[in-house]
Each structure stands twice: as structure tokens, then as C-alpha cells.
Amino acid sequence: MDAEITLNVDGSERTLTVDTRTTVLDALRDRLGVTSPKKGCDHGQCGACTVLLDGRRANSCLTLAVAHNGAEVLTAEGLADVIPDGRLHPVQQAFLEQDGFQCGYCTPGQICSAVGVIEEAAAGHPSAATAHPDTESGIDLTDAEIRERMSGNLCRCGAYVNIVAAVRQAAEAAATLRKGMPDPEEEAVHDSPTAASMPAHPEERS
Questions:
Q1: Cβ contacts of residue 198 below 8 Å, gap of 6+?
Q2: Arithmetic mean of pLDDT, 74-93
Q3: pTM for the full model?
């Protein structure tokens, strides 16, 4: 049996007709050409297919597309569009700076899961590693918290140490933004003598 559904994928509304047994992962990859989410185990065990579904991380290989008609789907590819000025999402930037990937196959799922982890901790959602849940001020993402919350995302290359470091860096950046404090790295760039002496970009010159 077929059904017509609409998904808002990375900010674009997409309408398609799918078999009612089609998963969100297969709808994205095979029908819409969105290949950022990867098909790994296809059993919800590896996390390579993780996307943000209406703001919550989900294994798209276990999720039926017809059950999410009208939903917003955000993939790792669309995360950069969330940030203005063409900059990378802080989680993407952290994975680059901390070298949190090797072959890269699991990376899109890792990044989407990390975004979800940071939001869940900020909202005070406890994990099995949380000793004292604090739903008001959020939960600090210690290395133990990060490892527990990211345990559904497997990396066959074994880049776990750097992945934990990347999530920690992104979580600290997110906490800084929530407190309304300036990003020290961004402030240093703008106030540096090098930045002040640089000529204007050719497109900005009169």
C-alpha cells in the first residue's frame, strides 16, 4: 500500500509517495537523494543513520516514514545551514578540530547524535550515568556522561577518544552561548592585530 507524505528535510519541503513499510532512512537515501545518513546495520544498533526528527535524535532505519508525515528532518548535511554566515555548526567544527573521525562513514550519525545529546543534557534529561539529575540548570556533560549518551553510535575505526573530546568542546561552546557570554576564540580573532590589518575582501571593496 502506498501513501503520499511530506517531509521537511534540511529546510526544504519534500513530497513523495512511499510504500507504508518504507523507513525514513530509505525515503531519504533512495527517494530523495539525501545520502548524509548512512545505512550501517539497518537494525538500529550502530547509529550511522541517526538524524534529528522534530528536534529529537532518532535511528532513521527503524522509523517508518508514514508515521512522521509533516515532520522536520535535520541531517548532518543540513546542520551548517542552521548557522548564519556560512559557518559550520559548532558540533561539526569540534569534530574537525578534535579529529573525531577516520573513515567518516559513521560521522554524520555521530554528529547528529552529539547535537541531540547536548540538547538533552541542557534540558536536564538524565542518563544511566547521571548521579544527581538537575532538571532546572541542566546536566554537566562529563566524559562519563558523553560516553553513556553516545553509546548507541558505533565507530568501527575506534575514534572514540576524539569523539568524546569533540562532544565536550561543542557542549562547552553551547553552554557559553546559553549564558550569553562572548566566544573567547571569536573575540580574540576580531580583536587581533592581524585581523585589524587585513585588507577588505575584494567583494566588499568599493
A1: none
A2: 90
A3: 0.83
